[in-house]
Protein 1
Amino acid sequence: MSNTHKYAFFEGNYVPLENAKISIMNHSFMYGTAVFEGIRGYWNEAHGEMYLFRLKEHFVRMKDSMKIMHLDDVKYSVDELCKISVELLRKNEPKTDTYLRPAAYKTGQRVGPSLEDNPSDMCMFTVPFGDYFHGAPGLKVQVSSWRRVEDNAIPARGKIVGAYANTALAKTDAILAGFDECIVLSENGHVSEGSAMNVFMVKNGKLITTPITENILEGITRSSIMEFAKAEFGYECIARQIDRSELYTADEIFFCGTGAQIAPIIEIDKREISGGQCGEMTGKIREFYVAMCRGEHKKYSDWLTPVYGSGAKSSDKVKATAKS
Ligand code: PMP
């Protein structure tokens, strides 16, 4: 994929993207010892503004991932990471929906996987980004024969590069078998999540999602939905273990995530869900979410960081939403 965005943040500077390169001896390349985040910027043409969704929360999670992987010798604060994000986007000047990809990684070049006494750094790039999933009315999904990595193998709550070999295997098999996506189970047989998204189901008017102890990434979209679905629509949401067969008999099911946004599931393992259409509650949640991310619901403006500032300095705006 070619990238029209010109600059990256690399080794402490804003540099032309083509100069942001690491060695083939890099530790993270050899052992998957990097962590990352995926953040969406929503362009609002009428506002002439780009809104970054829950920027601070993404960097708080990245700091947690860094702690797990002994990458916390990277000294940027959450506030500084927010400012770098805004600055990089201001340099790249996108006027379309954008994906922001920060990563923290081991810069060492030694052979051997251990993390201690092994220096780290942080980098960031941006790229134009439209829909992750294409095609209405929704996704046909396979329950994967691969299992989710366990907390005592590679903790899923850290967004750890090496763990994405697990999701790559599951997603690839689903695609090769003719499905759009997969849902992976934990070793104990309960539903965990999709390849890069969390799962919600609707049963008897209630929202149910998997608990954070089920080897999921603790999704920022997931927690946002739990908050606004109650406040805006009065939907109760519980987090509890979900059996595989509960998926087959659910009234509605959807994925959520930064990339996927809200993606209805219309079939699981060849069983039709919600009549092969986007369910009613899913539709309401999706419509609200997309408008909110684009800055159309003032009540949730604290969740958005405007990039271009609409008059104020970007750093002031960042401070307003990102108090680290
Ligand atoms: N699970 C995994 C494995 C993911 O990669 C993602 C995407 N970041 C999610 C869930 C959804 O998380 P979020 O809503 O924070 O993007």
Protein 2
Amino acid sequence: MSATQTSPSAADAGANASDAFRASVARRPTAETSQERTDRLVRRTLDAIYEVIRTEEVSYPEFQAVKRWLMDVGEVGEWPLFLDVFVEHEIEKVAARTQRGTTGTIEGPYYLPGQQRLPATATLPMRPDEQGDRLVFSGQVRALDGTVLAGAEVDFWQADADGYYSGFAPNVPAGNLRGVIVTDTDGRFAITTIKPAPYQIPTDGPTGAMIAAAGWHPWRPAHLHLMVRAEGHRQVTTQLYFDRGDWLDSDVASATKDDLVLAPQRQDDGGYAVTYDFELEPAATS
Ligand code: MBD
Ligand code: FE
């Protein structure tokens, strides 16, 4: 593995993830939070912190270490990484309470909009010598009532065989292993890609330092990211994992779910194939 040469620094990945997040804010609804709710949420968050300080008898040196660490996370731009790894899973579970159809999970920090649109049967943009086992991922997008959804978008992104995402690591070309696949008249798609590797949180940044200091591991199981959307339907953001893969039962981002684990089958050509269908619920009408 070429990880030592291509290893993205925490600052590279973090700065890019912070820029990507700032750009995404313009594309998404932002909360309009009343004074009452702000008061309640901030107060309860602070109370939870005070409770830890009192019961654990947190010292001045520990408090200063935390202050330094928080400043470092901001300086290298790791807030998107830290919050998506350690907080987003709970936000997503609350959102999932009202979502029917395909099971969702967290988006994480590495989505980039505006990628190449591809026909229903396509190969993801990749380097001529892209490493990793070939994987043909196919399926169908349907509404909850079974109606097939032609022209639905499967917006797809993943890490390469070394665990790096294009746009967030040097040496990976822009748009690599990203694309928006448009379903055919039967709502079907078939994407040729590679099986990604597990993802490791950058170990040279403050998030990695915290994980090491606590004696945790920095790994996510190998995964594919998807957003599936169709006119008149609620978009689902999810990830798909691989059976028997490392870290499936101890994802640092706590984002695995049983029905999101694929079992790809070896093909005669040495590659893998797997299918997964998506079901979208009607968009909220208001
Ligand atoms: C990832 O690739 C990811 O999917 C998440 C959720 C957090 C960090 C890196
Ligand atoms: Fe990821």
Protein 3
Amino acid sequence: MLGALARVPRHAFVPPHLLPHAYEDRPLPIGHDQTISQPYIVALSTEALALQPTHRVLEVGTGSGYQTAILAELAGEVYTVERLPELSLAAQRRLGALGYTNIRFRVGDGTVGWPEEAPFDAILVTAGAPRVPDRLLSQLAPYGRLVIPVGGRFNQELVLVHRDGGQWVERRLCPCTFVPLIGEEGWT
Ligand code: SAH
């Protein structure tokens, strides 16, 4: 996991005027009121997913594509959904230029998941949700893991959800602040 963080050049994902700050451990604005996540939170979320090279992963909130690249380093196939077309297109160009071939992109509401490609071994949501979307849980494989920030519009708790026998188990990872998840099973 640390290898993946070291291999992905964060400076390729930030706007030119913020280049001097690319390697600071904090989120940075990427335009359209959105942010590239803080590296510590990217590391914590990724670690919690326990990715294997055969895994198929769904990411909700492509944003700059930085977290997408980390997932693509560790998993087999990454499916990433972004609601803002401009951000998705910029991420597609960036990740293509970096040589990734195991990422599929979709523009739309990721709170409903990507049913055609389900089930997923791991799902990562990178925007803050009011609650865990049922439709994402239903697209998790039997031993799948979901990481999602859940809480209020401005502050959330990063939560890991996985199935233990027949039960869903939730574990809180840390307090965090993500931009809002907007959609059918998110905020309006
Ligand atoms: N992982 C990204 C974080 C981007 S911020 C990075 O490191 O750059 C979260 C992103 O989620 C924003 O780009 C926002 O537009 C997007 N988003 C919010 N609600 C969404 C939804 N319902 N479906 C897909 N993307 C969504």
